[in-house]
TrEMBL record, chain A:
One of its GO terms (cellular component) is plasma membrane. Keywords: Cell inner membrane, Cell membrane, Membrane, Sugar transport, Transmembrane, Transmembrane helix, Transport. CDD domains: TM_PBP1_transp_AraH_like. The keyword tRNA-binding does not apply. It comes from Pseudobutyrivibrio ruminis. One of its GO terms (molecular function) is transmembrane transporter activity. Part of the binding-protein-dependent transport system for D-xylose. Probably responsible for the translocation of the substrate across the membrane. The keyword Membrane applies. It is a multi-pass membrane protein. Its main location: membrane. The chain crosses the membrane at residues 12-31, 51-72, 92-114, 121-141, 170-189, 210-229, 235-254, 285-304, 324-353. This is Xylose transport system permease protein XylH. It is found in: Cell membrane. InterPro entries: ABC_transp_permease.
From TrEMBL, chain B:
Residues 31-49 have a biased composition (Low complexity). The keyword Nucleotide-binding does not apply. Keywords: Signal. The keyword Signal applies. This is Sugar ABC transporter substrate-binding protein. It comes from Pseudobutyrivibrio ruminis. Coiled coil: none annotated.
Amino acid sequence: MKYIKQVLGGDLRQYTMVLALGLLIIIFNIISGGRMLTSSNFQNLLSGNAYVLILALGMLMVIVIGQIDLSVGSVAGFAGMVMALVAKNYSIPWWAAVLVALAIGVLAGAWHGFFLSQLGIPGFITTLGGMMIFRGGVIWISRSISVPAPQELKWFGSGYLPEWGPSFTGMNNSTLLLGIIGIACYIFAQIKKHKHSGDATGVKDPVWALVVRIVLMSAIIGYFTWLFGSGRVGTSFPVPGLILLVLTIIYHIITQRTKFGRHVYAVGGNKAAAALSGVNVKRTYFLTMMNMSFLSAVAGILFVGRATAAGPADGTSWEMDAIASVFIGGAAVSGGVGTILATIVGGLVMAVLNNGLMLMGVGADRTQVIKGFVLLAAVAFDVYNKKSGKSSIIGRLFANK
Amino acid sequence: MKKRTLLSMAMAATMMMSTFVGCGGGREGAGDAASTDTSASTEQTAEATTGELPGFEKGATIGISLPWLGTQNWKEAEEMFTEQLEAAGYTPLVQAADNKVTQQQQQIESMIENGAKVIVVGPVDGSQLGSVLEQAKEAGVYVIGYDRLLENTTGVDGVVQFGSVKTGELQAQALLDGLKEKKGEGPYNIELFGGGPADPNAPNFFKGAMSVLQPYIDDGTVTIVSGQTDFTECATVDWDNSKAQARMDTLLSGFYSDKEIHGVLCPNDGIARACITACENAGQDIPVVSGLDAENESVEWVWAGKQYSTVAKPTEDLVAKTIEIIDSLQAGNGMPATDVTANNGVIDVPVYELPPVVVTKENAKEVFANDPSRLELLK
C-alpha cells in the first residue's frame, strides 16, 4: 500500500473521483457489452458534453469565490441566438458573428460583475435577475423560433481534426500527434517536479515511483489516443474536446500559477483577511463573474454549432449541470476550495453516468434520479470527511501504519 | 455501424504499444472495405453493398426517439411502438427526451452505438438535430421523421405525418361550421391561437386555418377583436396550456369586457380546454372551439358539448405507417415511393402524409368505433 501511495504521490483524496470515474466506465462497458469504450461513443461523449464542462470551468471559480451564477444557461442561449441572428440577417461572416457572441458574453459578465462588486448585491440575486433577463431576451429576439446557424460553426460543435500523413499508423495522425505531445508534456513536467521534490524536505521521491507513474500515465494517455484516433476515417479527437482541453489547461494555469488565481482562492477562503493583505476583492469578484459569462458564450457557440440551429430554449438548466459538476468535483459550498482538474473529473462522472445509462436504455426519469443521488452522495462524502477530520475510504486504505 | 470492441482496461498498455509500432487495428471508412481488420470484416460486407439496398436481419434494433411523454399521443406512441415492433420480431429501443434537445441528441447517438438499423425521430425541435442525424446517416442508419419534419439536415430519409396544412384547414372549417350551428348568423367575434413555434407543424396549422378564415375575415362575417392575426402574436410557446390560458385571460379582460366571444381557433386540445376554462372564468358563454389530438379529456368535453370539435390524428395510423416503412427497409426495398416532398431548408424530404379526421359530437361514435378506450368515454 505504501508503494502505491508513493507512485500516486501524496494526496490520495483527489483520486477518489478519478477512481470512481474509471470504475464507472469499466462497469458500463461490461454491462453494455462493450458499447461504452468505442471510438464513436467517446467522441460523442466529449462533443456532447464539452459545453457543460466549459461552463463548469468558470463555475468552479465562481464557487471558489463563494458566489454562484444562475445565469449561465440563459447567457449561453442568448449569445448563441444573437450569433445566429446577426449571421442570418446581416450576412456578416461567421467569425464576425462568433466575435459578436463572445462580446455579448463579456458584456453580460460585466453587468453581473458590476452589481456584485460595486453594489455588493449577492451573486445569487444578481444572476437570478440575469437568468430572467437573458432568457426573456432569447425568446424576445428569436420570437420563439429556431434560427439556423452558419454551416462553418458545425466544425466547432461537432467537427474533427484533419487527416494527414502516412496511413500505416492506423489512426488519425492529428490525434496521434496530440497524444504524443500530451505524453511528452507529462514526462517533462514529472521530471521537473522530481528534481525539486527534495527541496523542502531533503528527501527525494524514489526514482522507481517516478518511472512507474510515467509509464502508467503514458499508458492511459496512449490508450485514449488510440481510442479517439482509431475510429472511422475522418473522425478524430473531436474539435469541441480540443477546445475544452485547451481551456482546461489555460484555467488550470490561471488558478494554480498566477497572482489572480491566488487572489480567487484567498477571497473565497477568507474575504476579510484577503482584503487586509492587499487583495483587491472587488476586482477579483468582477473578473470572475465576467469570465463566467464569457465562457457561457463559448459554450453557447459550441452548442449551436452542434445543433446546427439556435433555439429559444437553448441553455435551459445548464447552470444546474455545471454546478453539479463542480460539487461532485469536491468544491466546498462555503468557497475557497476546489480545483479545475477535479471539476473536469466531476463533470465527466456526470457525463459518463448519463451516457452509460442511455446506452443501457434507461429512461430520462430514472437517469435523473440516479444523478441526484450521486450528487448528494459525493457532497455528503466530502462534508463527512471534513467534519470528522478523517481521510477518505481510499485514504484510509493507504494510511501509513 | 463499426465498433471497435475493445474490452478491458487491462489491454490498455498493449494497445498503446501497438499504436506506436503502427499495427493497431486498421480504420474503416464509410463504404471503404480496404481495412485489414479481420474481426470487423463481416460487418463491412453488409455495408459495402449499400447501393443495392441490402435490408437487414429481422431481429434488428429499431430506435424510437420521442420528445417526451407529457401528452397522450406520445405516451400512446411509446406503447404502440414497443408492442408492435416486438410483435413484428424487431428489438425496439424506445426512449423519450423529456423535451430537452441535448437529451435527444445523446439518445440518438446511443441508439447509433447500440447498432440500430432504423431510427424514428419525433423531434423536440425539428431543426436542432442536424449533426447527430448526419452522423446516423454516415453510419448507414435510416432516419425517419415521425409526426414532425426534421429540418436543416441532410440526415433524413423520410417523414411520416398527418398533413399539417390540411389539419389547419379542417380546424378552421369545423370552427365555421360550429359558429353557424351554435351562434346563429354572423358576424362572429373570434380569437386565434397558434401552437409552439419550435414545432414546424404549428405555423402550417395556422397557415391552413387562415387560408379558410381569410375570406370570411375580409367580408366581415368574422371579426378578430384583438386584431392579433400574425402567427408570432398568436403562438403558444412549447404548446404550454398555461401560457395559452394566460393569453386568453388577457384577451378577455382587454377586449371582451363589453362584448361576447363566439369562437376560438385552437391548435390542439390542451389549448382548447385552457381557452374554454378562461372563458368560463370570465363569465362568458362557452365559445365554439376547435382542437386537435382527440385527447381523452377533450373527447369527453366534445361529447358533453363543451368543446365543439377536435381533430383526431390517430396515433395507430402513424405508427402503422411507420412500421410499414420499416418493414419495407428490412426487406431491402428501400423507402416506399411517395409524390409529396417538403423542403427542410437543405434537401427535399419525402413525406408520407396521412389524412386527419374531424370529430364532433355527431360523428364521435363512428370515428372511435375501433377504439374501445375512447368509445368508453362517450357515455
